[in-house]
Amino acid sequence: MLQAINLHKKFKTKEVVRQVNMQLEAGESVGLIGPNGAGKSTTISMLSSLIMPTSGDVEWQGVSITKNPESLRKVLGIVPQEIALYPELSARENLAFFGRIYGLKGPTLNERIEEVLQKIGLTDRQKDIVKTFSGGMKRRLNIGAALLHKPSILIMDEPTVGIDPQSRAYILDTVKQLVEEGMTLLYTSHYMEEVELLCDKIYIMDQGAIIAHGTKDELKSLVSDNQTIELKAHILSTKFESALINQFPKATVRKEEDLLTVTLAKSEEPLATIFALAANNDVMITSAIVKIPTLEDVFLNLTGRALRD
Amino acid sequence: MTGIWIARLQSLKRKPLLLIFMTLMTVVMAYVLGSSSNGTTNIYVALDESGKSQEVWKELNEVEGYTFHKMTKNELLLKVNEDMDTIGVLINEDTYSVFAGTESDTVRSLSLAIESKFNELAFKDQVIQASGESTWVEIEKSLEENEAFQVKVDAMDASQIFRYDNALQGLFGFMLFFVFYTISINVQFILEDKQSGIWNRLKLASVSRFQLYFGHLSFSYVIGFVQILLVISMFRYILGVNMYGGFWKVVVISAFYVLLVMAISIFVISLVKTVSQSSVIISLLAVAFAMIGGAYWPLEIVESEVMLVLKWISPVFYAMEALKRVTIYEETLSSVWTYLSMMVGLAVIMLAVGITLLEKRTERYHSSE
Fold it and tell me: N or C: which end of chain A has fewer CB within 10 A?
């Protein structure tokens, strides 16, 4: 499959990517997350054979693509972060252009255009000029242009940047459908929830290096062995607070107005006890939220800063 | 490459105004500035009633490069008094007067033409008086059949004599100036495609770098060349501008100029980051090259040594000089080979440097995430 081996990229004296190792198996959906300037796009460019690594290698089916990029390019679809379309052309003309570039012609080209238009939901707007499209429609067409030649690997670089929630949901549904149909996916995004939704395996990148990777659960387990419970009640008495501390001596309890935050070991199952203590102390709990760590927390924990800082 | 051409043609079809505007501007500016003569110099002539004057008038109309307009003596005097630029001629039986605001090459050659016609008529009179009308007829017939005397008039260095044609100066100057924009704007599509990510998409579709550059550059070249062909054909065949039999030589020189401008444009886009930056530089260069290259005025009237040295960096200079040589000076293409080879040489260097820098910049796009 597609494998990055000790990928390293230097622009003049600046090290942009450092010793990156990644692996994409057939049919797998892999997420690559990291803040701006982490080196995601450069890594993608090397993985897709657009630029050569300073050192290291990318292998496709066990063969180096630095020497033979053609075999990968035939099966690769790429959705760049930019809207890589001709704004003066219609949606159909754009698709026809990219289809022709991939050697499609005649009825085969028309058939593929129809299929792609249907998949991205632009059949009704196919004759409209791209510059009149909304941001979301342009993004959808941007994806469509990468699908014309039926690639088996799709690399998407922040495909939902700057669009409205409806278009974002549509795109995520489309990508999910592609994954379900067996497409191998490499997806980069700022949005953790997108990566969580679409990807089986996640690589976290920061300052040019992969700082963690694994399944969602594996990554989340890196954060902490604790769980956090947020309790809201009509009247939070200090008696109830003391009872909680007595019951869970290792827990930390913090009170802010009508919110009580309890952090304690994951191994404990405290909800039944908490409700019983509340009843004994005449406290009526109105809500209880058990907070599970998110990928955002993982990133924060690993780098000391938020993903979108 | 065909795909690139189709996409560019479709874009042009949707957005043709810029090309139309550039072509129209060339035509309008060249027409307005060059229309005072339409390729010939207008001369206003008044005659007396004598037969000799009539004969001189008839002969004068055969002289190339001038358009003669007949009027009365009073009308002529009024016109030359009102307009200092008017050149007028008053022809009497044995004398003539030329009215002009300034002593110029045109006035001198016009005086020479009139004088020579008077001399021819005086010679004819002397032959008729001495030997009769039949002898003159015989002499005239003999001259026509045998070309007894073949006189070649030549200056020591004809190329050093300053000749000026207002119509061609305007036509060539504005044509070279506006086509610079047309070509540069088209070459900028390379930068746009690189920035929009289309370029990378095409590379991933296994389109070679050569095909990518050749597709874009050949399209820009053809658009620029077609604009020039339209303009010169219109001026030559519709407006009747005199190109001194050098129409096809003009076409050939223009082909070299378009190549050089295309190369300069790619060099410019290799130095900048954005299309707006390149537009600013192209506008500045187009005006500067036109000024120092002699598009707006003939360089022969420029006295500044600095300007005359700077002309060598202007592509307009090479094209303008070559165009004037093959038309106004009626020289051959081989006599302007130095200008042509300079244009080709510079184009090759600019293309090589420009494409190399652009390729390096492509890598830098990836580092700017």
Answer: C
